[in-house]
Design goal:
311 residues; alpha/beta; Rossmann fold; Alpha-Beta Plaits; 2 domains; 6-stranded mixed β-sheet; 4-stranded antiparallel β-sheet; 11 helices; 28% strand
């Protein structure tokens, strides 16, 4: 069993009558990438700010490696944070940004510079080291902001929407960097990109209205939550749509039509496919192109949090 790097016990936060986070209990393992997902207003940012020591708890506890953290400065020394909003000093070059951050954490300037040079190389920003950070593109600024959270070599790294605003090449670079940090550090990742979470996270927690709704690996959640995998095909005899439905309903309860498309959703739809095709063939019906899509993490997310738009 891996060691627990970070644990929350009954974490809660209220703003007057509004409960932003309610009785949140999490265990994040050492060396894993932990996805923290939820719609806008779900309580993600409030939870993250409490984990990082940026927001006072109403109740509950935060522990790192089993040690109760009651000192805000101690928590900030052990946790690195890359916020969603890019924060830079306009009058400092890239390397000066990193040295300044290091000195804020009481790291000697020489050590901070050495660490900064290495991180710039990793993020392919070495050529920009002496340029003012404000002159960089948005994607470069995002990458610089990410490594600024690592200068003091924290045990736990919290990344809030680290791929926001990145072009595809930068997105791959950041994603690979996050994966490279796994096993060396514990990474907590918040994102609205379900594909990103599915690719990168070892486990994900989904919260809404301040409460934990689901926790597990992406594959576990896709197996356990949602309406299942999706099989779509074109009906070559669309006028016989009712016939298709009556024949296939005993095999799959969740069937819908969209024009001449038939859409079946069920867990284990792949195992049902031979029986579906045999049933249609026996009854002289001819499906067109078949498309099979697995239940996705986005499907899980929508099932748990609903389709209503959030502000």
């Amino acid at each position: 069993m891996p060691e627990i790097a970070l644990q929350t016990r009954h974490l809660s936060k209220k703003y007057g009558a509004l409960t932003a986070v309610s009785d949140l209990n999490l265990e994040v393992y050492e060396g894993e990438v932990f996805g923290f997902l939820g719609p806008n207003g779900a309580g993600k940012t409030t939870s993250i700010n409490m984990l990082c020591g940026l927001l006072k708890l109403n109740s509950g506890e935060v522990l790192i490696h089993g040690t109760l953290l009651d000192s805000r400065s101690d928590m900030q020394q052990r946790v690195g944070v890359c916020p969603q909003s890019i924060i830079l000093w306009n009058s400092l070059t890239c390397i000066e940004q990193l040295v300044f951050i290091g000195e804020m954490y009481d790291i000697p300037a020489k050590a901070a510079r050495s660490r900064g040079e290495h991180l710039l190389e990793v993020m392919q920003l070495t050529e920009k080291r002496d340029q003012l950070a404000k002159t960089l593109s948005g994607g470069m600024q995002r990458r610089l902001n990410l490594i600024m959270a690592l200068v003091h070599d924290p045990e736990i790294l919290v990344l809030d929407e680290p791929e926001a605003g990145l072009d595809p090449q930068s997105r791959v670079l950041v994603r690979d960097f996050i994966k490279s940090l796994a096993r060396k550090k514990t990474v907590i990742l918040t994102t609205h990109n379900m594909d990103e979470a599915d690719r990168v996270a070892d486990r994900v927690a989904i919260i809404d209205h301040g409460q934990l709704l689901a926790l597990g690996t992406p594959d576990e959640l896709k197996t356990r939550v949602g309406q299942g995998d999706v099989l779509e095909f074109t009906m070559l005899e669309p006028a016989m749509a009712n016939r298709y439905l009556s024949l296939l309903s005993p095999l799959c309860a969740n069937i819908t039509t969209n024009g001449d498309e038939l859409i079946l959703r069920s867990r284990g739809i792949v195992e049902l496919l031979p029986r579906i095709l045999e049933t249609l063939q026996t009854n002289a019906l001819h499906p067109g192109d078949l498309r099979l899509r697995q239940n996705s993490l986005e499907d899980v997310f929508i099932t748990l949090t609903g389709r209503r738009l959030r502000e």
